[in-house]
Every structure is written in C-alpha cells, then in structure tokens.
Structure prediction request, 499 residues.
Amino acid sequence: MSVETNPQAVRRDKLAALEERGIDPYPARWRVDDHAASLLEAFRDDAEPITARVAGRVVSIRSHGKTAFLHVADATGRIQVYLRRDELGEKTFALLDCLDLGDFVGVAGQLFRTRTGEVTIRATEIVVLAKSLRPLPLGKVVEGEGEARAYHQVADQEFRYRQRYADLAVHSESREVFADRARIVRFLRNFLDQRGFLEVETPVLQPVYGGAAARPFTTHHNALDSTLYLRIADELYLKRCIVGGLERVYEIAKDFRNEGIDRFHNPEFTMLELYQAYADYLDFMELAEEMLVGLVEELHGGTQLTFQGGTVDVSRPWPRLPFLDALADAGVDVSDLSRAALAGEAARLGIDIAPEEGAGRILDGLFSRLVEPGLEGPVFVIDHPAVLSPLAKAHPRDPRLVERFEAYLFGSEWANAFSELNDPREQRKRFEAQVLQAAEGDEEAPNVVDEDFLRALEYGMPPTAGIGIGIDRLTMFLTDQASIRDVILFPTLRPEEGS
RNA sequence: GGGCCCCUAACUCAACGGUAGAGUAUCGGCCUUUUAAGCCGAGAGUUGUGGGUUCGAAUCCCACGGGGCCCA
Prediction:
C-alpha cells in the first residue's frame, strides 16, 4: 500500500475505516449536559464526584500508547479528556486511530485533577459526532496561567476573511469580537427601548434613493418592470414615520453604497438611525454622549477607550467645535463660501479640485484633509455649512449654516445628526439644487426629486432631531480592531477565482 | 485613481543569483497522568500565474491575479 500524504485523503481513509467498523461518522444527536467553562468552574476536589457530558472539536491529541490526552473545545472554552484503553475497552479506544484534529466528538465521564493539576474528564464514553475532512490551521494553543499562548497561528488576513468559518473555529479572539458586536447592538436596543423608541423596518428596495450622498446599487424588479435601488440610508422613510405620528423611531439595518473598499468602508454596512419628534440637535449631543459613555462602560468598565495604541477618555461633556472655526484654525479663509472663493483657497493650500466638485464637496475635502486627522478625542463638530447638509434645518443665527453635528473619535466620524428640515418649500429647493448638481456630474447627488417624501412633509412633520450611527465603525473603536473587515463576519471581497 | 509591501510544504517562517530547509501538522514505530509531551523513522513543494534576462532564477526585470498598508 502506498503511503498517502494528502491530508484530505488521509481523513477520507479514516472516515472509510470508521464506516467499516460500523460507526456512523455523522450521527444525528448527542445529548450535551455540560460545557467546558462551567465544568472547570464547578470542580473542587476528587472527593465530590462530578459527571460530565460534553461535545466539541478535538483541538489537540497526545497519545501515549495505552492512554491518550485530548483537548476538546466548545463555545465556552477547552477541557482536557483522558482516555485509557483498560477503561474504555479495546474497540472504543481504537477510535483514536481514526481521530483527527478538528473532529467533533462527544465525551462522557468523571472529572478529576491530573498529576500536573489540570481538571480533566476521565472518559467512559467517546463518540465521533462529525468527521472533519479538511485540516483546520489549528496551530498550537496552550492555556497558561490566565493568558492562552498561541503558536503558528494563521496570519494571512485574506484567509481569515474568505474562510471566516475556519478563522472563527481557530481564533477565540475573533469569536470574541463578534460576541462584543452583539453586546453593542443589544446595548443600543435596550438604551432606545427604555427611552420609548419604537423599532421599525423600512424598505431596502427603494424607487428613489436619498438621505445621504453616495452612489447606489441598482437592481430591477421583474414583475413591476421598474428600477429599484438598494438604500443608501434609512433617513427619508424614518421621517415619514415621524409624519405619521410615531414620535420616536429607530432602525438598525444594512445600508448599501456602491463605492470603494478600505479599512473604514464596506459596500454593505450596518447603520443605526433614530428620530425623535420635538427634539433638536442639542438634545442629541447629550444622547450621543450618554450612548457612547454607556457603551464604553459596558465593554470596558470605565471611561477610557483605547484604539490602535491611542487612548482617550470619553467622559462628558465633549467639546463642541464649529465647522468653520475648525477650518479657519487650520488656515482656511472661510469669509466667502462661494464655490469660486473656496476653489481659490483649495488651490492656495495645494489641494486638487475636480471641475464637477461643488462648494459642498470642496468644503468636505478641505475638512477631511486639514481637520479630521487631528480629532483624536471625543468631539462634536457642529454647525456645518448648509451646502453640505441638504436635509438639515437652517441655523437661526446664520443662514449659511445648519443645526448639525458630527461626532468624532480617533480622527474618524462615527455619528451624524441634525435638527431635521421640516419646511417642505425649503426641502424642495434643496432637492432641486441636488438634481442640478447631479446634472453637472456629481455622481453622489440624487438625480430626481423625491416627490413622495415632499408630499409627506407637506402633511406636516413636527420639529425633529435625527442621528445616524455607523455600527461597524463604532464596533471597531470599542473592540480595538484595525479594519472594518475585522468586525464584519463576511466582508465584501473580490470573488475567488473558479468559484 | 497614485505609491509602497507581501504571496515558498497543510500552518508559521528560512534560504535573497549556484543542490529549496526548519518547527508544527501528517504518516509508521515505542510509550498507562501528558500538556508547545517525549524518543526513533518517513513522506510532503510546478516557490501565486505567465513571460523575459542569465550557463544557472524562489532570488533580478516586466505583465497579470490575489492580499495588506499609506495617500487621493
């Protein structure tokens, strides 16, 4: 017989050997009574017998001839299993010959402490629950005192993103990030539910897209024979809810933007938007502060937050930095906000401007280049120019500005809020200006006026504040992950060749 | 869109113009409390793909593919 070296073929051979012995390598069920973490917790001494019945993946095997030690990993952790031929019988012990790292097994037995002190299951029963035919890049994991040390772990980011199932199976840190993500979303739901907000669901497929400046994904509905867009924001539908008298609403859902991918952007991402009637942007600054402080306390037990080596204190209140003041401090002359004047300033500062960029885009570009990188700590940038904010209410003290804020952390925006524009006449003018921009080549501007939204505003929308929060980016900050791909289970990647 | 870097065994990495190696994993043997178990032995590679330079290329050059980082 030739020596088989292909790991997958070796495993198929072992699977066949199991079946020859009359063992089903994929049995239907195994009752799980215990988990690794709680067993390790429960064990006191050998005098008090504790029976254990667990299931999980085999992550290490140390065979000693007539005995063997395994580690079995379940969702809660790892526990060692001790097998003895004289206790299990020759036939069951021979299962070891067909066992590979990565196989799922069920184990029953009694807890004891080994000579070296590790709490271990002395197996009276072991069964294969699912044979693994493909080797996982397990590396070696050693649970020392407190910290688990890992050796030869997969370092290839692409592998981790493309085969997240294997990444999760192998890296507990990766599983923890997604557990934390769930905690964050749960916290936000509780936070809003306690304040009387109603969770709603609005269309992903929209005949007219709006609520943000972005290029959409376009699709087609066959039966209606009409073009539909995947939403770039929930905003305009949530405001329709406010018109309808749902005074406090929120939605946590995917938005889609047909744009570039980098470590802060994924084409589909999760957004929390919430709207509250009779509130304004000042109220929402307090809400944003409470929300983030609460989250940092929930995850880190204090107000210190560390991200990629930088640490900030998120204690309230946060400074409020007027948008134009920030630009002026950075050396930009903001006395004239006309396109011509701003283009002149950009040229003077050596920043390239494309001919189709309007005054808003130029301001945005100046801000993101000159101001954003310096906004480490929690800070509100407030009172943006109206040209940047087609859905926000004009500032009572300066008609060039709107009542708006963006919350920044670690040089990156994580929340955007304003007192919502509710004058249907003014909203129509701003929509029409956007359509004009689109005609001039701005691909991020909507190309039609959303007449249905205007109809809703004409029925009357009370004064309202709204805020949008990027959940992915927030999760990056709260879990100290460098890339948005580290907090999205299955991030968008170029399709694999041959798939 | 621009720049820089990476791609070698299943995994982590060496070799940096002259016979592709190590540890882990895998396979065989020994081993009844091991834990990066140990000891003995074995197999494992079209060096991302395609071209070029050279007596000779994993190594130098070009293109393409995939990925990462920085900038726009």
